[in-house]
Automatic annotation (TrEMBL):
Protein family according to the UniProt entry: Belongs to the multicopper oxidase family.
Top-level taxon: Eukaryota
This protein's UniProt keywords: Copper, Disulfide bond, Glycoprotein, Metal-binding, Oxidoreductase, Repeat, Secreted
Lineage: Eukaryota, Viridiplantae, Streptophyta, Embryophyta, Tracheophyta
Compartment annotation: Secreted
Name the record gives this protein: L-ascorbate oxidase
Length: 437
């Protein structure tokens, strides 16, 4: 939960000298989107770990590049001063007629977002570092951990400024979290000149269709296609569910809620510390009779810190299957993030995954490679990756509270290829024996 404590930022990776992007732009800008809570990560973690369960709730604000909105009338004036110049919206100045590459990142703790610029189209050209077949959107949907590049041309009336907004989708935060506002300042208008219009309303929060449509539209651009293996060596199907364990609220994968051991996996595996974590691997599938559209009749689950052992350089398919939470008629959006790899996104679907029928619809021609991908409500997402990076790698929901509550797992591959581990990483759990007094 370090992002909730303020640890976040963006690293821009440039192309090697002599290489160019397959699209033109005049200026390059970075925009970070995130949500902001008044409670600390420690307070939130305490509530998530308590009986009775205390949910973190919706964020108090959404931020665009560190600036947001909050109703100061609900707080002491000395604590909250909306007239402070530091509270002014983030402003991006543009030159009329020029095209801007906006590198937009979502580093939210919880919220799925829609980002839009009043009166302007955005052309999506890159996702998670890979060039995509360009497509035009009015609203760019982003899930925690995702990054996109969009091209925006300053081609509107230059005599005024325009709103850029970020609003929550996937959760009903209509009455709790106001959309974030920023200003697109057309030079030479004054930076603080407010747009003459009302900010555009975001899309309906529970309309899944346009979000699924964007996911399906993201394909690798010709000339930048990394062809996936034609088949996989292993298929792991992961059911995402909300559960209870001894009265505590948890999230689970295939009815197992993930817990972290005291000893880091990489050290335990390298030094064969077999007692450091559960040696029984988690299940690779779920009960086919599970009704994904209903609250589970038996919400109980187990905990484990076991991991999935992958044969080095093998090809693995992951099917992420969404289901109903413990709230009737509710299935949440989960952005899943894999450490150490990019994966091919082979497809999305609605309803329960059919292992006989649905793989026939996989995109094996030009699938995009990503490191973070959503699984939509009551739907499934299919991924393929090659286990070619020696180590122990987390795969988890990028929503901070959900990972904290057990929605994650670990893959191990090629540990024998990992070199000698530095002494500086020793000291936790059973690794104390490797440190000098």
């Amino acid at each position: 939960m370090q992002r909730e404590a303020g640890l976040y930022g963006a690293i821009r990776v440039s192309l090697p000298d002599g290489e160019r992007e397959p699209y033109h732009y005049d200026y390059d800008r970075t925009i970070i989107l995130n949500d902001w809570y008044h409670k600390s990560a420690y307070e939130q973690a305490t509530g998530l770990s308590s009986k009775p369960f205390v949910w973190v709730g919706e964020p108090q604000s959404l931020l665009i590049h560190g600036r947001g909105r909050f109703n100061c009338s609900t707080m002491d004036a000395a604590t909250c001063n909306a007239t402070n110049p530091e509270c002014a919206p983030y402003t991006l100045t543009v030159v009329p007629g020029k095209t801007y590459r906006l590198r937009v990142s979502s580093l939210t703790a919880l919220s799925a977002l829609s980002f839009q610029i009043e009166g302007h189209n955005m052309t999506v050209v890159e996702a998670d570092g890979h060039n995509v077949v360009p497509f035009v959107v009015k609203n760019l949907f982003l899930y925690s951990g995702e990054t996109y590049s969009v091209l925006v041309t300053a081609d509107q009336d230059p005599s005024r400024n325009y709103w850029a907004t970020s609003s929550i989708v996937g959760r009903n935060a209509t009455f709790t979290t106001p959309p974030a506002l920023s200003v697109i300042n057309y030079y030479p208008n004054h930076l603080r000149r407010a747009p003459p219009t009302r900010p555009p309303a975001g899309p309906v929060w529970n309309d899944v269709a346009p979000r699924l449509s964007q996911s399906l539209a993201i394909k690798a651009r010709e000339g930048y296609i990394h062809a996936p293996p034609a088949a996989s060596d292993r298929v792991i199907v992961l059911l995402n569910t909300q559960n209870r364990i001894d009265g505590y609220m948890k999230w689970a994968v295939n009815n197992v809620s993930f817990t972290l051991p005291h000893t880091p996996y990489l050290i335990a595996l390298k030094h064969r510390l077999l007692g450091a974590f559960d040696q029984t691997p988690p299940p690779e599938n779920f009960d086919p009779a599970h009704d994904i559209y209903s609250v589970a009749k038996n919400p109980n689950a187990t905990t484990s810190n076991g991991l999935y052992r992958l044969e080095f350089n093998s090809t693995v398919d992951i099917i992420l299957q969404n289901a109903n939470s413990l709230t009737p008629n509710n299935s949440e959006t989960h952005p899943w993030h894999l450490h150490g790899h990019d994966f091919w996104v082979l497809g999305y679907g609605e309803g329960k995954f059919d292992i006989e029928k649905d793989p026939k619809s996989y995109n094996l021609v030009n699938p995009i490679m990503k490191n973070t991908v959503p699984v939509h409500p009551y739907g499934w997402t299919a991924l393929r990756f090659r286990a070619d990076n020696p180590g122990a790698w987390a795969f988890h929901c990028h929503i901070e509270a959900h990972f904290y509550m057990g929605m994650g797992l670990v893959f191990e591959e090629g540990i024998d290829r990992v070199g000698k581990l530095p002494s500086s990483i020793m000291g936790c759990g059973k690794t104390r024996q490797f440190t000098s007094p």
